Amino acid sequence: QVRLVESGGGLVQAGGSLGLSCAASGNIFRINDMDWYRQAPGKQRELVASISSGGDTNYADSVKGRFTISRDNAKNTVYLQMNSLKPEDTAVYYCHVDASTRPPGRLPYRDIYWGQGTQVTVSS
Question: For strand 28-39 and strand 18-26, is the pairing parallel, antiparallel, or unpaired?
Fold first, then answer.
């Protein structure tokens, strides 16, 4: 089992910036892709940004040029730097991680994990 702990959410005015982090812990053998999703009230959860184990990134069109996803493999942490925030960015942001665990003497197991979510509110 992998535990994900998110931090960095809060209230910010339009045009401001906010940085999110998501730290993974547990019996981790390898972390593959890491992603950030968001979900606004009454809407479906959507993919915001993703980063591969090799550092390749992908962004939703709505955040391109404003958000930057990065990772620190030594810390098992993924970040989302959000600049030029807009009211429509308001949502609960969730970390999503594809990871493999390998307890000593046991078979490896690959699964996906979700963070608890952190609220981002952008006021106009």
Answer: unpaired
Q: What is the DSSP letter of 61?
A: T
Question: Of 124, 114, 102, 120, which Cα lies nearest the Cα of 35?
Answer: 114
Give the tokens for residue 19: 């940085």
Task: Please tell me the total number of residues recorded for the chain in this structure.
Answer: 124
At residue 104, what is the residue type? P
What confidence score (pLDDT) does residue 94 get?
Answer: 98
Q: Give CA angle at 115 (29, 42), nearest 5°.
A: 145
Candidates 52, 33, 25, 36; CA nearest to 117 is 36
Give the integer Cα–Cα distance in Å for 35 and 96: 5
- pLDDT over 90, % of the chain: 91
